[in-house]
Amino acid sequence: MSASSLLFENKYFRSKKRRFPFFVTGALSAFLLTGVLVLNLRLTSIFQNTYRGAFLPNGALSISEREGSVEELQKFLSEEKFVRKAECYERVLVHHVEGSSGNVLPFAYFAVPVSEGEQSPKGEIHRNFACGSFSSGEEVSFQAGGGKSKGRIAEIIPDPINGAPELMTAYLYGNKEELQELKGEGEGEFYLTLWLDHPEADESQILKDYHRYFGKDFAGSVTSFQTLMHNYLYSYRLMGNYMVYLLCFLLAFVCLLILLLMNMELRTDQETIRTLKILGFTGAQIRLNYLRMYGKITAAGALLGGGGMAILLRKWLNRMFDGAGGIRISWISMLLPALFALGIVLLLHTLLLLIALHRISSLPLTEVEHEKTRFRVNHLCFRKCGASPKLLPFSLGMRDAASRRSETVFIMVVAVLCTVVLLSGIFVLNGVFKREDHLAEWGFVHADIYVARKKEVTEEQAGLLTYLNRDTDVDYVYSGLTDMVSYQLEGEDAIRQVSADVYYRSFPEKETYAFFEGGNPTSTDEIAVGINFAKRNHLRIGSVLHLLQKGEKKSYTVTGIYPSYRNQANSVRFFVEDIFSYFDSRMTGYYTIVLKDLHSQGRVIQDLSKKYPEFDFYPMTRSTSRTVNKMIPPVILSVCMVLLLYRMVLHFLVRRMDQDLEQNRDIQFVLGFTKRQIRRQRKVRFHLPELMGTLLALALSGVLVAWVLRPLANELGLMQIPYQPSLIGILATAAGILLAGTPGRIRRRRLDR
Fold first, then answer.
1. Cβ(586)–Cβ(219) under 8 Å?
2. Nearest to 12 by CA among 373, 289, 224
């Protein structure tokens, strides 16, 4: 090791103050970068490799039993070359699943294997992971069109299709006799889980082969492997996109911080560098020692941050497979992105250090030359302020801030960045908590009670609609349902499926809809499409989309492109004049009730169930989606992280800046300054640029927050995340920034010595 290396090692590795910022920035950068690399670039391949290795079902079909027999379906699938295996279940939708502990699920499927095998004893119920509220040994009761049933929970059955985090469809598995009792005169469904040789292929091949085999369109829904991956990975992709947002903020922060710190380091180390030059060391050798020294510190932090994120991600991603039987992700798939992040962080820090260290070669060898070169005139004049003893600390603090331009600009820019991030987080949280006021912007409609028919019955026969229109508890009623429909693009033969909101005769008059472009259809040959569905299929206003129904192809003209958080705007919306004819036997429900007071929900359902036994009434929760609530933890975490990082960095920076002022302290005491005046001077120096940056960010908050959140909104299928500005949020942000940047007691004690 050279003499210069020994000098640097001895001087800097004993100084925690010098190591701290490089260690922290390296750790945080590698932490977020590892998360971005895994969640945004490697997540799909990690999922595919892990899922394939476990030999789990990678597709599913569901179809009404009226569309054909199970024997015909199984024969069809046995002739499909890419279908290796299929398991068939018969299921019926049950509601008001209530456990003896008081836990309640609004919906669940009661399913039974079709194949003759060992049947569960009557009264013994198995559940999938989505029924997480029910524990083993707990007694549960549920009901359907045929009546009520109950049983005792035995154990959890792995269910990789329905246990996906973004789907979480509750399934109860029991006895065939119980299923027939629950069905009554109603209809059940066949549900088939599939093992496919080519899971990457979409549902188009199955739909085409079904049409060719049976001579009719598939009147059910297909779960492709792409849909399965989406159900597992969407929340983590959302987290990854949010990490990109935080990473951009952090990188801007790191670049400014390292450049500023190295500028301060060089100013402090001038004597050391001058001595080394006199001894014969070149500027390149001195820069190499700086790079070696800070490279070790940054590498240690990056290893800790990247390794920590790899451990956390493996734990989080393994948790997503809990519903699939607890399969595990390999360590290698996590460690490689962490090592790659380490390399990127070291490269970034090296480039920044080289930019900051270019001044070493031009540093003068003598103190006289140095003093001449660093002399700078302060053009700001505060003579009038300085004439007053009360305003003198303010005047001197202003002079300090003006003379230290790099530190002042850094504090201002960091205050702007932190304020924008905090405002974005607080506004989004406020918007999520008040989401019921912005349902249209989220792409949702109100729904309190959903009505489904148990058997063939018309509204005229039941008289339900007339009664609902007179009910004083009911605000309004609209007719329609959500289903999967098959479609073809203009000029293409491929058949695919998309989620569709199909309304009966018209759209709800009291509901408002947000549109990116255009508006709702006004006739039965028009259709509105979601933003992401339009982007994926290159649709615009006036484009033609073909829907397949009963062997016929009907053309629809696109009249509007709308945002929607549900399905991330991969959906369509239209209305029909005869919903019974359109959906035929698959149509089980078509009324949605919106109440004047949500507290009357239970009583209204009870009354309607007694009066109209031909229908089932399902309670709905007034919320956008449970995945909306998943936005809350990362937003809160980011707010806390920004405040903590801002506090730590400014704490270190203020300590370093105070060191430069120590030489002036004794002079100020001799001139008659009090400790209180010196503290005020320094507070002005630190707080003035901080306050200016915060006020600037607050003044431009409307534009900056919308601009920052737009990329995240596009991923969610929204025009803009429905954030909610608030005066309390603005005041809290300003107070948090100012309090986080307040010089601590250490500086005060230093003055008292």
1. yes
2. 289
Which is nearest to 565 in space by CA: 630, 621, 612, 617?
630
Where residue 539 falls among pLDDT bands split at 50, 70, 90? very high
Name the burial class of residue 437, with classes exposed (0-12), middle (13-18) and buried (19+) by CB atoms within 10 angstroms of its CB.
exposed
CA dist., res. 217 & res. 63, Å (int): 12
Contacts of 470 (CB under 8 A, 6+ apart): none
Q: Which residue has the tokens 């020294």?
A: 293
Looking at residue 748, its pLDDT comes to 44
- pLDDT per position as a tens digit, 429-487: 776 777 666 777 777 788 888 887 666 555 555 577 778 888 888 888 887 777 788 88
DSSP state of 15: -
Residue 57 φ then ψ, to 5°: -60, 140
pLDDT value at position 551? Answer: 66
Band (624; pLDDT cuts 50, 70, 90): very low
**CA 88/CA 194 separation, integer angstroms:** 9
Separation in Å, CA 256 to CA 352, 417, 494, 566 = 9, 11, 52, 40
Say if residue 744's pLDDT is above 50. Answer: no
Which band of pLDDT confidence, cut at 50, 70 and 90, is reported for residue 373?
very low
**For the segment 670-698, what is each residue's pLDDT rounded down to a tens digit?**
566 666 776 777 777 777 777 787 788 77
| Closest residue by Cα to residue 150 from 171, 124, 121 | 124
DSSP letter, residue 540: -
Which helix (H) or strand (E) is 561 found in, with range? Answer: strand 552-562
Task: Give the SS3 label for residue 606.
Answer: helix
- Average pLDDT of the segment spanning 269-296: 77
For the segment 152-170, what is each residue's pLDDT rounded down to a tens digit? 988 888 888 888 877 778 8
For 107, the enclosing helix (H) or strand (E) is: strand 104-113
Q: Is 167 exposed, middle or buried (0-12, 13-18, 19+ CB in 10 A)?
A: middle
The single-letter code of the amino acid at 377 is: V
Helix (H) or strand (E) holding 530: strand 526-530
DSSP labels for 384-450?
A: HHHTSTTTHHHHHHHHHHHH-HHHHHHHHHHHHHHHHHHHHHHHHHHHHHTGGGGHHHHT----SEE
603 sits in which H/E element: helix 601-611
pLDDT of residue 672: 62
Length of the chain: 753
Residues 46 and 38 sit within 8 Å (Cβ to Cβ): yes
463: left (phi over 0), alpha (psi -120 to 50) or beta: left
Task: Give me the amino acid identity at 365.
Answer: L
Q: Which residue has the tokens 């933890």?
A: 633
Bridging pattern class, strands 449-453 and 589-595: antiparallel
Measured CA to CA, the distance from residue 711 to residue 498 in angstroms comes to: 24
> Is the pLDDT assigned to residue 529 strictly greater than 80?
yes
